[in-house]
Amino acid sequence: MGCGEYLRHGLAFAVLFGLLEHLVIAILGFQLHWFRQPSEVLAIVGPYYHWVGASITPVLLYLALRQYAEAMGRPWMPMFIMLGSVGLNVFLNWVFIYGHFGVPAYGLTGAGVATLISRIVGTLVLFLWLRFDPAVRPAWPERWFAPLSCERIREMLRLGLPSSGMLTFESGAFTAAAVMMGWLGAVPLAAHQIAISCAATTFMVVLGLSMAAGMRVSTALGAGECDRLRPIGFGTLGMGALCSATFMTVFFLAGDTIAGWFVKDDAPVVALAAQLLVVAALFQFFDGGQVIGAAILRGLSDVKIPTVITFTAYWIIAIPLGYVLGLRLGYEAIGIWIGLAIGLAFAAICLGLRFARLTREMTASRNP
Q: Using N-to-C axis directions, what is the helix angle for 150-184 and 186-222, rounded to 10°?
């Protein structure tokens, strides 16, 4: 019953915040010139931007359903549904971008349409699977349209708002970095997109580890097994470091080759992307460390201080330093990425130290 109520309230939050974010994006969509991007970028990005904005609500609904499934010990099917959604997105991109099966070629706008359709389909499939999964049925909501609980809303907001702040500070910092790349011109912006796509792909592995660690930490804490907290947290940090070292080696040794997979006839973009991948190789450790550190602290219901740490890392250190290095001191794209790397390092170290201190205190209080 309790799990079902959390899901019901979570889906309500997803709809509310999804619509609010779509409204904000729709308003900003008419003011994209504020970001001073190249005219050739602004000419094609507007319609795509609005379609992607419309897909935010399905994404939030999917995330709520996926996290519910994972908390119920059912992580595999959401992964397969996500892979199917990605495959559908690729197919629909082929249809709508280039024009197949009688559909006009919509270009970048077609990519936005494909994204919206694939996200809606993935969310519906996940909902229907959960609805008819016998293992989940006992914890499925009994009354979808019953009044929401103010107490439960306050509880979820107390943990959710700081956590969302952490994610907002991080994603906003990388968005700001992309905007600064646009100030440098189309070539740096294109190279940045290549490098950040590669870094984001490898980041998914460590992100998955962090989610599993957060759930295990919260389970151990709820069971009163404080002796398990440090092995879980530090064990996951070690696994994340090993994965990051592997990806770091790949980026460092094969950056030119990887960049060439994206564009074949634009040597300046490939050359700059390869340089950015070297920097990405260096901050793989810190990126993995900060996301795992944030997740295991969330498992302890510790969200306020980590939010302050994240804000400091990205908006006091990373973005100002990237601006100074990249646009004032002349290091350009490399300077912006060095600023991001230093901010990630600060976040990883501070979050790891906080987890060490909190768990040491918890263990000591249980074992005087």
A: 160
